Amino acid sequence: MQTRGKFATSFGVLTATLGSAVGLGNIWKFPYITGKFGGAAFIIVYLICVALASLPVMISEIVVGRRTNSNAVGAFKKLKPYSAWPLIGYAGIASSFLIMFFYTGVAGWVYSYIFRALGGTFVNATSDVTGTIFKGLITDSLSPIIWQVVVLLVVSVIIIAGVEKGIERITKALMPLLFILLILCDIRALTLPGASMGVKFLFNPDFTVIKGDVLLIALGLAFFKLSVGMGTMITYGSYFGKQENIPATAVKVALSDIVVSMMAGLAIFPAVFAFGFKPDAGPGLLFITIPMVFSKMPMGNVLLAVFFLLTAIAATTAMISLLEVPVAYLVDEKGWPRWKATVLSTGIIALIGSTASLSADPAGVLGATKIFGKTFFDLYDYISSNILMPLGGIFIVIFVGWFFGKRNLQMELSNRGRLKNGVFLNVFLIITRFVSPVLIALVFLNAIGILKI
Ligand code: PFF
């Protein structure tokens, strides 16, 4: 039996967990979804979803992981042997694969854009030009797949290096760098003439667009953003030391994650408005609008490369945590060495993930293939973000609220009585027993059409 890894420092715990939360979600999904659904109004709904649903799930997952020192499946096997609870863990492994299928593809585009920006591809480009370049990339049958493989190689090397020497060491170096690069981009965007429109857009609420389906989108995003509902935080929680303050760490991660999303929004929207573009360009915002907007600034190419570098960093630290879910399972439960677990998992992702890259554009190789009316890309995203993660989230909070044992919960939340947070325990119990499950269930049933809000 090999000894399991652990994060060695509290700073490492924070950077690794935040590294999982911060990702393409902040820079790609959050801005375009906010752009589409009413700016600040959407952000308010999103914040409520974080506070009442995804943050409680995050705390619950870390508690279960640290308590059991186990991967997402093993944790439930230890706590409730011969029960159906480990299914949560298996569903989590499925989600992590589904997300990796499309996430590695988008990350590949991001990696390739760093080099394109540096090479001057976007100098003085119009939207037609950046649009054509993006289409050219995603309709190509080879280049997106090569980039996807490059991304997988980078992530694999870090995972094989181990929990402390790989995940912790890399995130400790990269997360501070990410903040510095983001601040740089913010300063540039906010000092552009006309930037205030973008700031207003981000902070002025338009509640008329908030309907039932927007609620589901906010909830799905809140889960995706904090990497919860699928065992990632159980896995990382199992690497937390006994002295780490779980609720405080989770709150710090959730707040910092929101700060990063806002900072990304502040780097993007002021520039978009300053140059007279529309904020609701959809997923293309990052790859079509941004390159064009940045190319209009002095030294725009360098800044664009910086922007894509920070996006690549965010995506990479998030993918590390995604890949760690199946790897930890294979290592713990099947006794495999890390390298073997990593090679098998990445192999599956590379094979099936290519269907996501190739279906990303209607004109792409698999663009016309639809399953349940969705392309492969959208299908993987939809099943993981809108179905498996909310379902996983409900069962995890129900498990911790009702079946984990109040005393066990108290031991984990207070570090065996060392932290004085008795009131918090009671509030947390009410939230996990009633508020989160009901909220997630309502939004979920509405989304799949069983209930109409
Ligand atoms: N939280 C990441 C993001 O916002 O991009 C995505 C993610 C990472 C989701 C890890 C789930 C996960 F387990």
Automatic annotation (TrEMBL):
Q: What are the entry keywords?
A: Membrane, Transmembrane, Transmembrane helix, Transport
Q: Which domain of life is it from?
A: Bacteria
An example Pfam family from this entry, by short name, is SNF
**Entry's CDD domains?**
SLC6sbd_Tyt1-Like
Report the transmembrane regions from the record.
39-64, 85-111, 145-163, 175-195, 215-241, 253-277, 302-329, 341-360, 380-404, 424-451
The reply on keyword Membrane is: yes
What does UniProt give as GO cellular component?
A: membrane
Q: Which InterPro entries match?
A: Na/ntran_symport, SNS_sf, YocR/YhdH-like
**Keyword presence, Transmembrane:** yes
Query: What topology does it adopt in the membrane?
Result: Multi-pass membrane protein
Where does it reside? Membrane
- Quote the PANTHER family the UniProt record gives: TRANSPORTER (PTHR42948:SF1)
Protein name, as recorded: Sodium-dependent transporter
Q: Which organism is it from?
A: Biomaibacter acetigenes
The organism that produces this protein has a lineage beginning with:
Bacteria, Bacillati, Bacillota, Clostridia, Thermosediminibacterales
